[in-house]
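Action item from last week, closing it out:
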Amino acid sequence: MNRAVLLKMSEQAVVAHCKAKDIGISSLGKIPTGGVRLVCMSSDGAERIRVQLKSNLMKGDTQDLGHGPGWDFVPRD
């Protein structure tokens, strides 16, 4: 099960929801096209988010967003 979820929400709203529902956040970041990419600490937490925030889910592949080591790297001059 994938722990990553794309949401049409602000980072603050996602953090508040996760805190209220006791869902652990592994990482959270803005998506260039709008919205956020949330990676939950567990697949159970991600599934709970998908059910609870169904109307805020974005379609798309979370693997194509270019996250991970080396992304957003800016070399020094």
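Closing note: Residues 31 and 37 are 6 Å apart (CA to CA).
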